[in-house]
Design a protein that fits this description.
Largest sheet: 5 strands, parallel
CATH superfamily of the largest domain: Glucose-6-phosphate isomerase like protein, domain 1
CATH class of the largest domain: Alpha Beta
CATH architecture of the largest domain: 3-Layer(aba) Sandwich
Radius of gyration: 21 Å
CATH topology of the largest domain: Rossmann fold
Low-confidence stretches: 55-60
Helix content: 40-55%
Order of helices and strands: HHHHHHHEHEHEHEEHH
Number of strands: 5
Oligomer: single chain
Mean pLDDT: 82
Number of domains: 2
Length: 279
């Protein structure tokens, strides 16, 4: 959240203070300070000084990290250090997707279609549900699907409506994903495919393909960059919608309280609970 704000307000950061950023995000000033320190800067002033020499304002945070201006922790384990560098590079590339023309096309579809369906296959099932849930806080009529044992009729029944389908998969030859993409194209349904950079079948069915690097030096894979892509899509969609997205978020938080879904205890001033750790 703080990273997105700093990126989106790049040109105004010279006039920002820790207090103004905290006020805009409705967090404490200490939260902002902690974030700045976590990425390697002593304070906001040092961070703003580093921004003056950064080359990519639309990907400022990753650019600073990759260029070495942000002080990353030194890891004694070389394998872990290699993994860290690979993931940082992948996240930087995820941010650079926001500069592509297709990013704007994807954002417009997510903001303007009456219905949005999100489905994740295989290892991306959880990513799909998380994205759908977060997008529901930005706009209505978003549905996430998890069980692929059915025939996806809830999605296909919306053929001919103002409907966008987001399909997330990282399998190069995923039979059901491809069949669903084929049907979406046949129905004229706008299709957004989110995949890793080794999965290229999406281009056969749509121009709205967003790929992120998931491979790591140790032969394993990480979904961190995919999660960043989806988070940025949510943020971009909210900005496209504008005030209605803010109102939607407020409504969803009211519903949380109404259904007692999330408890937010009020701090009791002057009262501190003592714990005995000796037993």
């Amino acid at each position: 959240m703080i990273a997105s704000y700093l990126r989106d307000n790049w040109h105004n950061l010279a006039f920002e203070t820790g207090a103004s950023i905290a006020s805009a995000l409705e967090v404490s000033e200490m939260t902002v300070i902690r974030f700045i320190r976590q990425i390697g800067f002593a304070n906001l002033k040092d961070f703003k000084e580093a921004l003056k020499t950064a080359e990519a304002p639309d990907a400022s945070m990753p650019a600073l990290v990759i260029s070495g201006q942000a002080k990353l922790p030194h890891l004694a384990n070389q394998a872990m250090d290699d993994r860290l560098q690979a993931e940082i590079q992948a996240i930087a590339e995820a941010y650079r997707l926001t500069t592509l023309p297709r990013w704007t096309i994807c954002t417009n579809q997510l903001a303007e279609c009456e219905f949005v369906s999100v489905i994740g296959f295989h290892a991306a099932k959880g990513l799909g549900l998380d994205f759908a849930t977060r997008l529901q806080y930005v706009r209505p009529q978003v549905r996430g699907f998890y069980d692929q044992s059915a025939l996806c009729t809830e999605i296909l029944d919306l053929a001919g409506r103002s409907h966008c389908l987001v399909l997330i998969d990282t399998f190069p030859y995923s039979r059901k994903s491809i069949l669903l993409a084929q049907q979406a194209r046949q129905n004229g349904t706008p299709l957004i495919v989110i995949s890793d950079n080794l999965t290229n079948w999406g281009y056969d069915y749509t121009e709205m393909v967003l790929q992120a690097a998931t491979s790591l030096p140790d032969g394993q894979s990480s979904a961190a960059s995919l999660a960043v892509v989806l988070s940025l899509l949510t943020s971009s969609t909210a900005r496209k919608i504008g005030a209605a997205a803010t109102e939607r978020g407020r409504f969803m938080r009211q519903m949380e309280g109404h259904f007692d879904e999330v408890r937010r205890p009020q701090p009791q001033r002057g009262q501190q609970r003592d714990f005995d750790f000796t037993s």
